[in-house]
Amino acid sequence: MFNFIKRRELKARKKGFSKGITIGAVIGSIMGGLTGILTAPDSGENTRKKLQENAEELKNNLENDLMEAKDKVNNEIAQSIEWLRKEISEAKGIFKKENPKYKDETSSDLQEAPEKNSL
Q1: Which PANTHER family match (predicted)?
Q2: pLDDT at 81
Q3: Residue 86 resides in a domain
C-alpha cells in the first residue's frame, strides 16, 4: 500500500515538473510574440489585428489545455475510486475471515457510492 502512495507521489512530482516547463514555455512564447508585435514597425491597425489573432490563439490553446487537464483529473479520480473499492473489499474479506460472527451491515455502502466522478 505504501509503495502505491510513493509511486503516486513520484508521478505527481514528474507531472508538476513537466507542467511547469510547459507553462513557462507558453508564457515565454506569449511574451516574445507580444514584444515582437509591439516593437515591429507596423501600422496601428495591423498591430491591433495581430494582437487580436494572438489573443484568440491563446484562448484556444488555454481551452484545450484545460480540457486535457480536466480529463486527466477525472481519470485519476476514477482510478483512485477503483483502487479504494478494491482495498475496502479486501479489508472486509480479511475482517470477515477473522470475525465469522460479523454481520455485514455495510455491504450496500460500496454500491451506493456515487458513480459520478467528473468535475
Answers
A1: GENERAL STRESS PROTEIN
A2: 92
A3: yes
User: Within 13 Å of residue 74, how many CA atoms lie on the same side as its CB?
Assistant: 11
Calpha distance 74→54 (Å, rounded): 30
Task: Tell me, yes or no, if the pTM score tops 0.90.
Answer: no
In a domain, 30, yes or no: yes
Domain of residue 28 covers 2-112
Domain count across the chain:
1
**Closest Cα partner for 114 from 81, 92, 87?**
81
Has residue 55 been placed in a domain?
A: yes
Could you tell me which residue, 2 or 28, shows the higher pLDDT? 28
Tell me which residue of 115, 52, 49, 59 sits closest to 85, measured CA to CA.
Answer: 115
DSSP code, position 13:
H
Q: What is the tens place of the pLDDT at every residue in 14-48?
A: 666 667 777 777 787 888 877 777 777 777 788 78
Q: Is residue 118 part of a domain?
A: no
Those residues with Cβ within 8 angstroms of residue 73's Cβ, 6 or more apart along the chain or in another chain: 119
